[in-house]
Please model this.
Amino acid sequence: MPTTAKKRAKAGYMISSVAELYKLHPQTLRLYERVGLLKPSRSQGNTRLYTDADLERLEVILTLARDMGVNLAGIEIILNMREKMIEMEKQMGEFAQVVQQELSRVAASYPRERAPRHAIVRATPKAMR
Model:
């Protein structure tokens, strides 16, 4: 990301700019904040500042509201579920990595000549042993 984009993402966009960009009334953005759908940061002068992440979230909100006809309560539920799914995906990825590391560690501790035999025995029905 270019330096100016990083600065802009940290500094944020004012409510008037966001409202104009998305063709919204500023009161709509205030409503989204009041019901907890958006949480813009504040400047020292208490001006709302929307980051790029806030704008991405706003785009999801607008898609759900405008294109899919979802009400605000439904949007809140969907966004909460989405956040939980993202967190679960992250945890599953971390768990899979730990399991893979443990499998590699265990495989490395077995002598090479014994590993194939064990695999064959496990795959063979008991009646054939």
User: Anything to note?
Assistant: The chain has two domains: 1-70, 83-124. Residues 1-70 form a domain with the Multidrug-efflux Transporter Regulator; Chain: A; Domain 2 fold (CATH 1.10.1660.10).
